[in-house]
Recover the amino acids of this structure.
């Protein structure tokens, strides 16, 4: 996989994210579907073009390129002046990998190695399934993106399953987070994220929206 992470290459993603409070009925579940592409630089993800479809049908498209995030659709489009289709804002600040919806960042070699070193494996006809569990504390110890997102603020256990194809490329990651209820964090909830990855190494280019279509909004 590391060899495929070169400028001009990328991967296609499709993710489903669900969250529910464990002391609430299933109707409190939040569902989010994300589809799009990620573009690689040298050994890392540098850009994203992704669309999030929220429960209820609201749809927002995002582009992250050149260190900036742009959004089109949903509430963002409602704030735009006539003739503009893309918004920029100080609160639009995403990293490209975040559109996998996974907090386990498989694009970090140290993170992927940490998961697999003690994982159980089950080899199928065309894929191998690995499974295991990890705490957020242990994940953040090896993952820079985890430390950036959570630091020491979250107490959660993560169970996960990861599938690779015959080329060793990740084709799916399913993670279940069980968030502990503490004095600092009164929310007692569960999150499930199921992400598929395809087209590793395909040509992907994410461009900045035309300046004539972009407006700064607060």
């Amino acid at each position: 996989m590391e060899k495929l992470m070169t400028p001009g290459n990328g991967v296609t993603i499709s993710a489903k994210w669900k969250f529910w409070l464990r002391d609430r009925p299933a109707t409190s579940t939040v569902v989010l579907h994300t589809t799009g592409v990620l573009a690689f630089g040298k050994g890392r993800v540098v850009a994203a073009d992704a669309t999030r479809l929220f429960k209820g049908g609201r749809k927002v498209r995002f582009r992250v390129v050149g260190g900036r995030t742009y959004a089109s659709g949903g509430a963002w489009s409602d704030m735009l002046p006539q003739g503009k289709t893309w918004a920029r804002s100080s609160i639009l600040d995403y990293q490209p990998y975040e559109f996998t919806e996974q907090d386990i960042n498989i694009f970090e070699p140290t993170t992927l190695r940490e998961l697999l070193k003690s994982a159980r494996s089950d080899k199928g006809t065309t894929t191998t399934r690995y499974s295991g569990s990890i705490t957020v504390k242990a994940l953040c110890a090896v993952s820079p993106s985890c430390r950036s997102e959570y630091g020491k603020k979250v107490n959660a256990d993560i169970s996960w399953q990861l599938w690779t194809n015959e080329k060793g490329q990740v084709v799916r990651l399913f993670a279940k987070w069980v968030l502990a209820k503490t004095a600092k964090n009164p929310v007692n909830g569960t999150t499930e994220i199921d992400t598929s990855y395809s087209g590793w190494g395909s040509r992907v280019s994410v461009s900045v929206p035309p300046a004539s279509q972009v407006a700064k909004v607060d």
Summary: The first strand starts at residue 9 and ends at 21. The two ends are 39 Å apart (CA to CA). The first helix runs from residue 74 to 78. Helices lie at 74-78, 109-117, 136-142, 144-149.
